[in-house]
Amino acid sequence: MSAIESVLKENRLFTPSDSFVKQANITLEQYHALCEKAATDYEGFWRDLANQYISWHTSFTQVLDESQAPFYRWFADGELNVSYNCLDRHLADKSDKTALIFERDDGTSEHISYRQLYERVCTFANALKAQGVTKGDRVIIYMPMVAEAVIAMQACARIGAIHSVVFGGFSAGAVKDRIKDANAKLIITANESIRGGKRTPLKATVDEALSEGDCPSVEKVIVLQRTETAVSWTAHRDIWWHDAIANQANTCEPTVMNAEDPLFILYTSGSTGKPKGVEHHTAGYLLGAIVSMHWVFDYKPNDIYWCTADVGWITGHTYICYGPLAVGATQVIFEGVPTYPDASRFWQMIEKHRVTTFYTAPTAIRSLIKLGADLPEKFDLSSLRLLGSVGEPINPEAWMWYYEKVGRSRCPIVDTWWQTETGSNMIAPLPGAFPIKPGSCTLPLPGIMVDIVDETGKSVPAEQGGSLVIRRPFPSLLRTVYNDDKRFVSAYFPEEFNHQLYLAGDSATRDAQGYIRIMGRIDDVLNVSGHRLGTMEIESALVAHPLVAEAAVVGRPHDIKGEAVVAFVMLKGERPTGEEATKVAAELKAWVAKEIGKIAQPDDIRFGENLPKTRSGKIMRRLLRSLAKGEEVTQDISTLENPHVMEQLSQST
Ligand code: PRX
Known about the structure:
There is one protein chain. By secondary structure, this protein is of the alpha/beta class. The chain has a domain at 529-650: ANL, C-terminal domain (GMP Synthetase, Chain A, domain 3), CATH 3.30.300.30. The chain contains 21 helices and 30 strands. Helix 7 (114-130) crosses helix 8 (147-159) and helix 9 crosses helix 10.
């Protein structure tokens, strides 16, 4: 049975225990009251939350400004600083509380209190200023998962610099594209990262990205010395982190920001062109992060919270760098990988740090089931009270295992649907308010007007698939695509829906109870191990190889990764076969890893003398998807320009 079919047949409901309900931040009654308030007084609903949860420097008078729709503005005359909200406001009563428990790859760990984190952020913020960074400048952060990554992000927020974090697994080409698009002034990196005992040369990758001299905007590179390994050095441009902070004061007045000043840019894949710089602004983003910490993660002051994401992704922004710190939580941050030194690392760390709230991705769960389904039993996981899932649909089998083996049938699972663009959780259980169902992210958060529609924008009936949209703007929604307002409008508020509905790009169904199931992307975006990849991006990388004439990339279901990447390639010369094909395929895989990063590397490359095209020259992707899955092609291929290539393309190399 395929994952999607098994999701559709799922009807089990799991009701939260009385003891969970008793202590929950949001009960069923409160949930109904919030929904009612949002339905009857939408602006008042958000105004109250913004006043309740954010410490404002200057209060706002207007809640939502729709005059430039779909360029919505929230709390637009308010002033605040995000770093102040994450650090300074906790100093009065949580100065000695642990903010970060940083566990290194080698298993050693370090506790950093709110006071210490505040001082380290201030010191580094002063260092950035000393290097010439001012409000509005773009700063690229290309770091390992270490405390300094969070410190760097918070320091940018403190002085009003706009950070753009680039995942440490991306290649020089991807780093360069992002530097150029953001016109970045400064880069923060480390000499190396260490994950699973393996070292990755981050600084050398930055050097390569900057080497051809075509990133003239970059004035300085700050380098954290994570290991003893020496790196090459460009005088006047490169500066060690420890030298940059030497002699800097450990206090730094937070820069007063307007609610609608940009906070960060994060690049993500879309269906066309290069990755988009998703731009989030100060107050709305912060509000989404805080509200969901309280509602979805049921945050309590005694929690030990752990989100296993990397700060290179939106989950690491909202649910590591900003949300948990804004509510004053103690959180674990982890440098390594779940399988090192062995597949019990997560369970061992939960036991060691007495983790209460654990948030991870289905792909990690599936791979850990495979590597040791019984391993969690060997550890004391009694501290856990809530589990979370994010990034891709979780199949009911993995959900049940997570629920029973990790949560010991005690802990609700919050399956959270959201996106880089939405900034914070959109559809997710409020775990003390209503029952959960395997494979369903359940119901939209109060105030998030989710709908499932047909191509005309009309709601579809229950159990019928459709396109997932959000009918009203909400505070944490992206404001634009960096430097590309037009793309923002066409990608997210398209003409087909009169520029009024936010188009998520996912398809979904709703059951009779209103519970939502995400079916997957409806555009040319793949979700490989929870990472979003544009098929076009991989195709562009492939055709940039001197041997390749044309390439088409599709996804294929994969047990662990969710989706695998299959590339259909036509070379400029003859179609390779046998050993030659294996050799060229390996070369092309390595090429994509170099152009984009290992995560984008095709799992399977197939060569044809041509690609299946209609007589008007369009590549028939639907056919390729069937071929990739190994399905028998039942479609009529008689209109194909070149039907004989089908046989060639069904063969893996
Ligand atoms: O297809 C949905 C899937 O991930 C996409 C967003 O990817 P990204 O911007 O990288 O953000 C990932 C982390 C929030 C969505 O369009 N997705 C995310 N969460 C879920 C999901 N699919 C199903 N269930 C989820 N809980």
